[in-house]
Design a protein that fits this description.
This protein has about 260 residues and is of the alpha+beta class. It has five helices and four strands.
């Protein structure tokens, strides 16, 4: 009986230890699981933290790049402002020039008895030379104040009379020689009113270019011909082959030099 009792107590003791061991084992496994989860979470957090730091650095770099671009754009904006102001000033100057041209009618040399060309010729009479060197030069000086480098257009106009149909123009052969002074205007032969208008305009240009006062103004003279095309009013002329003194004239206009593109 006593042996049985001892055996029963021993068996109960062993059962208690076995239960305790199972509990401890389970607790250890649970703790290990928590530790593993904690380590895993810590690794994820570290990874996220590193990624966040990298992204922050990238944002900082992009922010610096944007700051640099912003400064660059500010600089370009200031340049554009300066260019805009410069263009505005030029526009005002051009408007003033246009206004001055509108208020200044062209100078005209009309044909009168003491200052006219011989018929069909571009040779300057003494009266015409005197008028050019005195009256015309003074008028051009008054017009040209503050217009250094301007183009002075000298345009020859004729009436509608038909030029001598038996004459053959030699301007294609001789015009350049006369313009540079290697030949006289008496060597030119006009084959049309267009030829005659150009010859007379060139004769006036050559006389003006001799004047030292005009040379100081830096003006550039150009010869053109309108033949019988325009009336003194500026309108197209009708067909009229009769001699008309009012239509025979030299017109002088000013224009600013063309800007190089």
């Amino acid at each position: 009986m006593s042996r049985r009792l001892r055996y029963s107590r021993l068996n109960q003791t062993l059962n208690v230890w076995q239960s305790f061991t199972d509990v401890m084992s389970s607790a250890f496994m649970i703790l290990s699981l928590f530790l593993f989860l904690a380590l895993l979470k810590s690794g994820v957090l570290n990874s996220n933290f590193s990624r966040a730091i990298t992204e922050i650095e990238e944002v900082k770099i992009k922010n610096e790049e944007l700051k640099g671009k912003n400064e660059e754009l500010k600089g370009k904006n200031e340049e554009l402002k300066g260019e805009n102001e410069e263009l505005t000033d030029k526009n005002k100057e051009l408007e003033e020039e246009i206004s001055s041209f509108k208020s200044q009618p062209p100078i005209e040399i009309t044909e009168v008895s003491n200052r006219k060309f011989p018929s069909g010729s571009a040779e300057l009479s003494e009266g015409l030379i005197k008028f050019i060197q005195n009256d015309l030069v003074e008028q051009i000086e008054n017009y040209a104040q503050g217009k250094e480098g301007y183009i002075v257009q000298v345009i020859g106009h004729t009436d509608g009379q038909i030029n001598n149909s038996f004459q053959v123009s030699n301007l294609d052969e001789q015009l350049e020689r006369v313009a540079i002074g290697n030949n006289n205007f008496s060597n030119l032969t006009a084959g049309s009113n267009a030829d005659l208008g150009l010859m007379r305009a060139l004769a006036v240009v050559k006389e003006l270019e001799k004047n030292p006062r005009l040379k100081q103004l830096g003006l550039k003279f150009r010869a053109y011909s309108s033949a019988q095309l325009y009336l003194p009013s500026g309108e197209y002329a009708g067909v009229d082959r009769n001699p008309e003194q009012k239509r025979r004239r030299i017109e002088i206009r000013f224009s600013p030099p063309a800007e190089k593109q």
